Amino acid sequence: MPNRENAPLFEKMREHYERRPASFHVPGHKSGRGADREAAPFFEPLMALDYTEISGLDDLHQPEEAIREAQALAADCFGAEETFFLVGGSTAGNLAMIMSLCGPGDILLVQRNAHKSVLHGLMLAGAHAVFVSPQTDGESGIPASVRLSDVEDALSRYPEAKGLLLTNPNYYGMGVTLRPYADLMHRHGLPLLVDEAHGAHYGFHPALPESALACGADAVVQSTHKMLTAMTMGAMLHLRHDRMDRERISMLLAMLQSSSPSYPIMASLDLARRQMHLHGERLVAEGLKAVQRLRDGLEDIYGFRQLKHHSAQTAYEHMDPFKVTIYDGTGTLSGSELQGFLEEAGCFVELAADKAVLLLLTPASTIEDAERALGACEAISKEYLTNKQELPGISPNSMYKPLLNSVSIPVPMNIPVTRDMKNSVQDSVCVMPIESSAGKRSAEMVIPYPPGIPLLYPGELIQEDTAAELKRLAESGARFHGSREAAKGNLRVLTDIPEDTHNSNIE
Predict the structure, then answer these.
(1) pLDDT of 104-152, one tens digit each?
(2) Is residue 35 part of a domain?
(3) CATH code of the domain in which 307 resides
(4) Are residues 323 and 260 in the same domain?
(5) Beta 219-222 vs 235-239: how paired, if at all?
(6) CA-based angle 250:253:277, to the nearest 5?
(7) Domain with 303 in it
């Protein structure tokens, strides 16, 4: 095992840089010399390390030297047996692990509030999803985690399933301890796959939950760029045990990722790993100081409330302290208004919902960051909330309910989300106003973004509250992925449902 104090790939890149080599290979900017002059001060230092597969720098798709060593160190750091660097974000990892496990017609048990990349993986595999609905948190209305008993029920109904894919934690930091889920799947001889995009920091400090790997998961995708210090698009796919076909995963990643992977992104993964390997607990502790200052300060600002985990809650077991969801307890400001006022003060948030915003902190966050956010909230309170009455009954529940209850309606088991579904129904699709769509079945995925969780899947029955919330989102200027019509106030719906969709247990 290489020394954890090393960063093998970065060090090889630095060695090459220090040789001041002449470049007779791609990329065309020639170590930044060809960069646009206006942009050069920003890009040149990074471009100087923007290399390709030249001697000494290894090859992501056939790693034998520095990249192989860097991935081995990452596996040791995060508790895997084998780790793959991803330059296409967690999306690439989700696609690869699903496609390695499932073929045409196969069934995968999937947590209903999964990221769109999970559905895309099923589509590419030609597989079917059996969706397991998450419990909705009673205080916030947010879909959180699935019950173990619901997974057991799904396994009894679909014993031919290839495995279970869970999202843990969710976008808001809500999650469960995964050990019972891993044990259940392993008793059935099946793998547990986990989209842990927002949990790369888990397990590095006593105040944080255990990681999915520590709980026995077989394949775990982490967005190292989300909560740690890798560059955007830098992620990792971790494997344990022998329930996943590692050779097939490697082959799929070579197909799904660029044949010209970004060396700066890969080096940032190497360096982020070294930081956590050597100083993980200390770095998390420093970030938690900023979190505590922010949470304590919010308690003293009139009108502002924050989402907290209480032991009586059953929809999830723990919350990532780095995710701070705040809202206006007087009911005056919407989430988008709150976002706008914070941005005017220079504080840019991760996500705005109907009445709340999500502030995402990381181990790199500082006390100064917290103070700036508190200053902005204090100014907003004085300007807009001081003369308003705080309402005891106001909580994110009433704010989130329309959207998130739609997500957590009892689900569509075995929706045929296959690659050829579009072709099979192309002649049976029409576009209609959202307000007229209730009772129809969606012909497309409709994904408010962020957070990128599909509100509608292909073939899913459109409920009245779903249509109402989609109309509200469209009118408020929300962005949508998967649908070109939703932002215009329309939906593509099925007018002549294929027989297998009628029989798909969609409620």
Answers:
(1) 999 999 998 899 899 889 989 989 888 898 888 888 878 899 999 999 9
(2) no
(3) 3.90.1150.150
(4) no
(5) antiparallel
(6) 75
(7) 280-399
Shared-domain flag, residues 248 and 332: no
Q: Which two tokens stand for residue 287?
A: 């970030």
User: Nearest-CA neighbor of 26 among 52, 60, 56?
Assistant: 52
Amino acid symbol at 266? M
Neighbours of 348 (CB within 10 A): 9
State yes or no: pLDDT of 162 exceeds 50.
yes
- Amino acid code (one letter) for 90: S
Q: Which residue has the higher pLDDT, 188 or 419?
A: 188
Q: What is the CATH number of the domain that holds 453?
A: 3.90.100.10
Q: Is 177 exposed, middle or buried (0-12, 13-18, 19+ CB in 10 A)?
A: middle
Q: How many Å apart are CA 124 and CA 145, to the nearest integer?
A: 26
CB 486 within 8 A of CB 474: yes
Tokens 């084998």 sit on residue: 82
The verdict on 118 and 256 lying in the same domain is: yes
| Cβ atoms of residues 469 and 403 within 8 Å | yes
Say whether both 198 and 174 belong to one domain: yes
Q: CA 167 to CA 131: how far, in whole Å?
A: 12
- Name the domain boundary from 344, 364, 399: 399
End-to-end Cα, the chain, rounded Å: 53
CA distance linking residue 413 with residue 131, whole number of Å: 5
For residues 262 and 52, give the distance between their C-alpha atoms in angstroms, rounded to a whole number.
8
**Separation between Cα atoms, residue 141 and residue 404, nearest integer Å:** 6
The count of domains in the chain is: 3
Average pLDDT for the chain: 89
Q: Where are the beta strands (DSSP E) in 143-272?
A: 164-167, 174-175, 192-195, 219-222, 235-239
The amino acid occupying position 91 is T
Which residue in this structure is represented by tokens 């646009």? 36
The C-alpha atoms of residue 209 and residue 194 are separated, in whole angstroms, by 15
Cβ pair 209, 318 in contact under 8 A = yes
**One domain for residues 266 and 349:** no
**Residue 136 and residue 285 in one domain:** no
Give how far Cα 157 sits from Cα of 106, 121, 132, 145, 304, Å. Answer: 14, 23, 12, 20, 46
Whether the bond between 169 and the residue before it is cis, its omega within 30 degrees of 0, is: yes
Residues in the chain: 507
